[in-house]
Amino acid sequence: MTTLNDRGGTAIQRVSCCVHPGRGYLPIELALRDMRAANGRNPDTGEGVGNASWIGASVGMIVLDSLSGEARGASTRFKNLLVEHSIDPDDASLLWMIRNSLLHGYGLPKLAETGGRRVAFIDAAGGYALDTRDPDEIRLSIPVFCAQLVERIAAAVPDRWDTSLIDVDGVQVHIGVRYLPPMPPIYYSTP
Question: Which of 148, 160, 171, 187 suits 111 as a labelling partner, its CA being 20 to 30 A distant?
Fold first, then answer.
């Protein structure tokens, strides 16, 4: 199956992540802003075509992870989130494999994991987020994955957002969910 609800150019509702001095930011706002910026889109609104940034796709996977909850069984909760939002269960499993390869090894799934099918990250703004129609290749359109699939699900589940507030100046206001304050940068000298 292919993610038919997530095709480039489809109008969707997006979360507004505008800068608002004087109050902390929800983690979802910061994550969406970072995903959008890496993806070459407007950080405030999410408008723009996007690009094939693996960093954008990685942050998109993190957004989906955070929206899937905290119950035991990360695989099950991640896939359930997708299925609850009209992603075919087989596609949800493929996205889980892609997520693991991307976040744990910054690479693509091995052929043995995908039944011998290649996985390709593509820059097809008019395609589907995940296109599985080709029997030899699974295509993840990073611009559509970030701008459509991740954005659509994030906007649909405000009840699953972490409500901690993070002060981007380094001080965190805690409202009940665990977060560590930002650490100062560590610099290493090079020979």
Answer: 148
